[in-house]
Design goal:
It is a single chain. This protein has 4 helices and 25 strands. It is mainly β. Among the domains are: about 90 residues, Lipocalin (Beta Barrel); about 150 residues, 3-Layer(aba) Sandwich (Glutaredoxin). A 9-stranded antiparallel sheet has the order 4-3-2-1-9-8-7-6-5, with no helix packed on it. The longest helix is centred in the last third of the chain and has 19 residues. The two termini are about 35 Å apart. About 40% of the residues are buried.
Length: about 425
């Protein structure tokens, strides 16, 4: 996917982070429990809405952000003198706000550091994600189905293709976009009159899609936080397919093996030549701890490893971090390890740059996407390289990939 999309789940309620211990509430105000609507203010006219449920138990608050079928649980909620800090359990993102009253919070959302921030306002509300227009006219329009999508169609440098999948039930709309390198995960919103609205807050990304439905086509704009905006156009096409993701990354001529040596979370160098990996089926997962698509795949690989490890499957995650400092990158990787209960090796492979990753693995033609997974048989031969990952938000595409991968790994183990 694009650089800004580096492109979490199996529903996050299953992976609640037990290490996040919220502080006791010391505010004079008691926040109202139930459904809240939070808006990230992009500019004077555009905001990205998200919904969360707020509960209060044993003196502590807990939030559950909702994106269609996805639930992201946040237990780290600190309140002091009507100031509130909400920390994501996996990503280096957080909210800092002021409790204005029991049903209103205002402040800023931060990502990685305080150089990137977006103002937000959250209030207790049972309203729709996107507000209904003043005049709601029943039109009978329904955009459910599969769409061929062009992002930045008139800009050759930024243009890319996508599959749009949407499901509309009255004015309620869900869906996602799939590219050759991953997906935009769970999107939720509304369809009013002739316009579609979809958004997502997944802990790391803020996505907003708006489009007008005209002559059986969609003409829209996509925002990723405050740093990216581009046009998109889509037409119905049930037969449209993207390039096979197994064909995008491959070994360069002159190489017949994957080779590397990186430190694990104990500072010990690990290589495929280590005895632990001899005569084993190995999946090498190139990932970034800042990447929601990578979290989706980590959840899947953790399940696969737990099921097949005794039969001879090993997994190695190569973590490319935003920081070049080993200790900092280690702490970020430890959050992933603890959050998902990862039992396989996670190695600190370098800085999160496709150029740096290509230098670290020079035998590959490129690193096109985080994540990328390399499947190696018992003889050390690369049997498949999968660029990107279609997560649970893609529905049948995710189900089909999991079934195919489970079957492929079983056959490698049986050889």
């Amino acid at each position: 996917m694009k650089n800004f999309i580096l492109l979490f789940i199996i529903v996050f309620t299953a992976f609640g982070c037990s290490s996040d211990q919220p502080k006791q509430k010391t505010s004079n105000l008691t926040l109202v429990e139930g459904s809240w609507l939070l808006n990230f203010q992009l500019d004077a006219t555009n905001s990205i809405p998200t919904k969360f449920n707020l509960t209060h138990q044993e003196g502590n608050y807990q939030l559950e952000f909702i994106n269609a079928e996805e639930t992201i649980v946040i237990k780290s909620v600190e309140i002091n003198d009507n100031n509130i800090i909400i920390k994501d359990p996996v990503f280096n993102t957080w909210f800092e706000g002021k409790i204005i009253n029991e049903s209103l919070i205002e402040g800023f959302w931060y990502k990685n550091d305080k150089n990137y921030k977006i103002a937000f306002k959250a209030h207790h509300s049972a309203n729709n994600r996107f507000p209904e227009p003043a005049q709601l006219i029943p039109s009978g329009n329904n955009i459910s189905g599969k769409w061929e999508v062009d992002f930045s169609k008139n800009n050759s440098a930024d243009h890319y293709k996508s599959i749009g999948q949407f499901k509309q039930d009255g004015n309620y709309l869900t869906g996602t976009f799939m590219t050759e390198t991953g997906d935009y995960r769970f999107l939720e919103g509304n369809f009013y009159n002739d316009s579609a609205y979809l958004s997502c807050y997944d802990g790391a990304h803020l996505f907003l899609f708006k489009a007008q439905f005209k002559n059986d086509s969609l003409y829209g704009t996509f925002w990723s936080g405050t740093h990216w905006e581009e046009p998109w156009v889509a037409g119905r096409n049930d037969s449209f397919e993207l390039t096979n993701p197994d064909s995008l990354t491959f070994l360069k001529e002159g190489y017949d093996r994957l080779a590397f040596s990186f430190p694990n979370l104990n500072g010990e160098n690990v290589s495929l030549t280590d005895e632990k990996y001899q005569n084993k089926v190995v999946i090498v997962n190139i990932m970034g701890p800042w990447c929601p698509n990578c979290k989706d795949e980590t959840a899947y690989l953790t399940q696969l490893f737990n099921k097949e490890n005794k039969k001879g499957l090993e997994v190695i995650a190569l973590s490319f971090d935003k920081s070049e400092d080993y200790e900092s990158a280690k702490q970020t990787a430890l959050k992933i390890k603890e959050h998902f209960g990862v039992k396989y090796d996670i190695l600190i492979a370098g800085k999160a740059s496709k150029i740096d990753a290509a230098k670290a693995l020079p035998m590959l033609n490129h690193i096109m996407s985080y994540p990328t997974s390399i499947f190696i048989d018992k003889q050390g031969n690369i049997r498949k390289i999968r660029t990107g990952f279609y997560g649970p938000g893609t529905g049948e595409f995710y189900t089909r990939y999991i079934e195919q991968t489970d079957d492929f790994v079983s056959k490698l183990l049986a050889e």
